[in-house]
Amino acid sequence: MSHVLLPVFALVRRADLAEVIGSALAAKAAGAGARVIAERLGRPGETVRGWLRRFASRAEWIRRFFTVVLVDAGVDPAGSGPARTLFADAVSAVVGAWWSVAARWPRVGEVSPWLVACAVSGGILLAPSWAAETINTSRL
User: CA 125, 66, 31, 128: dihedral to nearest 10 degrees?
Assistant: First the structure.
């Protein structure tokens, strides 16, 4: 067995940078469709649909996980109100967690929310292995 260290800007089993994938997720949360997102990013439609499907399939888990990060890291945490969709709620939780982390450690605010999400998830935000059973869920 071999081990590979991933840089913080990479997600496991994904060729694109976390920021590219994150921009696709944010666009979907704002209401854009996969085809439009793929065209904007210059990525194949099936690749973008795969990102969106994987994120959507665990949106509730992601929302809960990053809400815990938001509360744990926040100096004076305040979550956002409910979004239009569960997908958008999950994206909002990722961004909210970034705000909380950046408020506590200002230099972190110099990187994108998606780099923080990548680091917090250990690079497995969209990996098949990231599920409730693989992370300590005692606080969720």
Answer: 20
Q: And the tokens for 40? A: 């904007």
**Spatial separation of the C-alpha atoms in residues 90 and 26, rounded to whole Å:** 10
Task: Supply 36's token pair.
Answer: 């439009």
Tokens at 138, concatenated: 């005692």
Average pLDDT, the chain: 80
Q: Which tokens sit at 102?
A: 């950046």
Give CA–CA dist 66/61, Å, rounded: 9
Q: Which residue has the tokens 């210059």?
A: 42
pLDDT digits 0-9 by tens, 50-85: 999 989 998 999 999 999 999 888 777 666 666 689
pLDDT at position 137 is 45
Q: Give the bridge partners for 17, in sequence order.
A: 10
Question: Residue 49: which of 63, 67, 33 has the closest Cα?
Answer: 33
Cα separation, 95 vs 114, in Å, equals 8
Pairwise CA distance, residues 128 & 96, whole Å: 24
Q: Is the pTM of this model over 0.90?
A: no
